[in-house]
Design a protein that fits this description.
The protein is an alpha+beta fold and 560 residues long. The protein is built from 15 helices and 16 strands. It has helices at residues 2-19, 37-46, 156-191, 194-214, 230-252, 255-258, 263-281, 285-315, 319-342, 352-390, 400-411, 429-436, 438-455, 479-494, 521-537; strands at residues 25-30, 51-52, 58-59, 67-72, 82-87, 94-98, 101-106, 120-125, 135-139, 148-155, 419-426, 461-466, 469-475, 508-514, 543-546, 551-553. Residues 1-23 form the signal peptide.
């Protein structure tokens, strides 16, 4: 967020610098066959062409021959080298003439020797050309949509300052988008959740769209392999971005749960948009024309559908839908404004294309925060599910499966520390259920579990083995201490004052077994269970400790 704020500040400084560029007088008309640049300049001197404000976005006629633009610098004139800049020129080539002398020809996709601006076309106007002399720009005709251009003339120091500011802003914005995409991809691989994968794909497509429109992928990135592919690649990235955004929003905002009626329309857009890419890639005139005709209306309709689905999901309680709305709504508004600008509206806001880049970085940050929240939610839910799966629902102790798994891990640590096994069985528990009901039996189990948990250490492994049986695995406790602990537990259960009948209280019989090198968890349980059975036969409410030969009885008086 700090980097984005810094980039926004730099962008503001760049806009302020751009406002200080030298004022120009510009006129334009379409190119006619056989015309020479000097003749065009002479005609413009005698009868000026239609004028336009070069600081406001101007869409030039997309005629087959192209367009002429006459550029004049009003007094006072400053001598020296200057830089003529053309922003948002589209993909066509632009040439600068001094009379019939060609100064340079360049384009965003040009990787040759001429000067290359970052996000704009630039021409070096040498000091030998007086500042008072009009210059002529020729925008070559192209099949791609024309750009909405602004034109400025600056000194080299002013240009380099503005160019450096824009580079910091654009590089920072694209770096944020790609970093967030990489983070989402890592989450997708770690969590095996395609929600993060669709988000990463969407961010890459959006960054590619803005990189192509601004020329950033050509200069400074110098990706020459994309030369000549900007129009088709941009259209494909636009269609796929809507598709990936739809797939992402379906899972992220949980549309299935909160807005089930919109699931099918949103999913349909996710499927239809790649079909437009396929139609365009066929090269068949009918299919290509159909794809071009449908692309922009479907993109706008799909964006509005996602906005509506997100709004309804948020209104119905989807927490993550709010993250989607905060990131998506400003970007949708800017996209619509930029689209209107391409149709000749909002000419006084040449900063909109750069704002779309900054908003892409903002959206990446907001949605990444939302995805991080989703990852924490998923982890919490998984931990909770694991806890519920491992816990006995009545007593809250480990259930038999979870306790056995934990006991196996303890025994696998080796013989460095003694391990004692305690097997508990409540006395006359069936009689308690029969006389007082199962609700009373459940309360007794909960009370016994709480008493055992309070008496044992947090490190001791306590679980409910089944019915009225409990088990405990004590580490670092020798035979004598294990017997004393079991005797104390007998007294604690007896003091619970749970009446089985008028004369009998709820008690517990405990069998104790010390772990031997040959023991497994199952054999240890069997020996402790056998010792507990001996305690039952000896009169209950007592402890019996098993040895290697047979059980050793602890007298009843020892546990009173």
């Amino acid at each position: 967020m700090l980097r984005l704020l810094q980039a926004t500040l730099v962008c503001g400084l760049w806009f302020a610098g751009a406002a200080g560029a030298s004022a120009l007088l510009t006129n334009m008309r379409e190119v006619r066959p056989g015309e020479q640049p000097a003749d065009v300049l002479a005609q413009a001197a005698q009868r000026p062409f239609p004028s336009f404000d070069p600081t406001r976005l101007q869409i030039l006629p997309n005629s087959p021959g192209g367009s002429w633009v006459v550029v004049r610098t009003p007094p006072p004139w400053t001598p020296g080298e200057r830089v003529l800049s053309v922003r948002h020129p589209g993909m066509g080539a632009v040439s600068l003439y001094d009379g019939n002398t060609l100064i340079a020809t360049t384009s965003l996709e040009d990787f040759g020797p001429p000067l290359h601006g970052h996000g704009r076309l630039i021409f070096n106007v040498p000091a030998s050309i007086p500042a008072s002399r009009p210059l002529l720009l020729k925008f070559e005709g192209t099949s791609a949509p024309p750009g909405a251009v602004t034109i400025s003339m600056d000194s080299w120091p002013d240009y380099l300052r503005e160019d450096g500011s824009w580079m910091v802003f654009a590089a920072g914005s694209f770096a944020v988008m790609m970093t967030m995409a990489l983070m989402a991809l890592c989450f997708a691989l770690i969590l095996r959740d395609m929600t993060f994968g669709w988000y990463a794909a969407y961010l890459v497509c959006y960054a590619l769209i803005q990189g192509l429109r601004s020329g950033f992928v050509f200069h400074p990135l110098e990706i020459q392999s994309l030369a000549g592919m900007a129009d088709n690649l941009g259209a494909a990235a636009t269609a796929l971005s809507v598709s990936f955004a739809a797939l992402f929003m379906l899972r992220f905002a949980r549309v299935d749960e909160y807005v089930p009626l919109l699931r099918t329309p949103v999913l349909s857009f996710a499927v239809v948009m790649p079909l437009l890419v396929i139609l365009r890639a066929t090269g068949i005139g009918l299919f290509v024309g159909m794809a071009q005709l449908l692309l922009q209306p479907l993109v706008l309709l799909g964006a509005l559908l996602l906005l509506a689905a997100g709004t309804l999901a948020a209104a119905r309680g989807s927490r993550h839908a709010w993250f989607f709305l905060v990131g998506w709504t400003p970007l949708l508004i800017l996209t619509a404004l930029c689209g209107a600008q391409q149709q000749g509206m909002l000419a006084g806001a040449p900063w909109l294309p750069d704002a779309a880049i900054a908003m892409g970085a903002f959206e990446a940050i907001v949605l990444s925060i939302g995805l991080s929240d989703r990852a924490l939610t998923i982890r919490h839910d998984r931990d909770r599910a694991r806890e519920l799966a491992d816990s006995d629902p009545l007593t809250g102790l480990l259930n038999r499966r979870a306790w056995t798994e934990a006991a196996i891990e303890v025994l696998e640590q080796g013989l460095a520390r003694p391990v004692a096994m305690l097997f508990f069985d409540l006395d006359h528990f069936k009689a308690l259920n029969d006389r007082h009901g199962h609700a009373a039996g459940d309360k007794a189990l909960v009370a016994v579990a709480a008493a055992l948990r309070q008496e044992l250490r947090p490190s001791d492994l306590l679980g409910r083995y089944g019915g009225e049986e409990f088990v405990a695995l004590l580490q670092g406790v020798d035979r004598e201490n294990a017997t004393l602990i079991a005797s104390r537990l007998c007294r604690r259960v007896h003091r619970l004052d749970v009446h089985v009948s008028t004369s009998d209280m709820l008690t517990v019989s405990i069998g104790v077994a010390m772990r031997t090198p040959a023991d497994s968890v199952q054999s240890l349980i069997e020996r402790a269970d056998a010792a507990m059975y001996q305690a039952k036969l000896a009169g209950r409410n007592r402890v019996v400790c098993a040895n290697h030969v047979g059980p050793v009885l602890v007298r009843r008086s020892d546990v009173r």
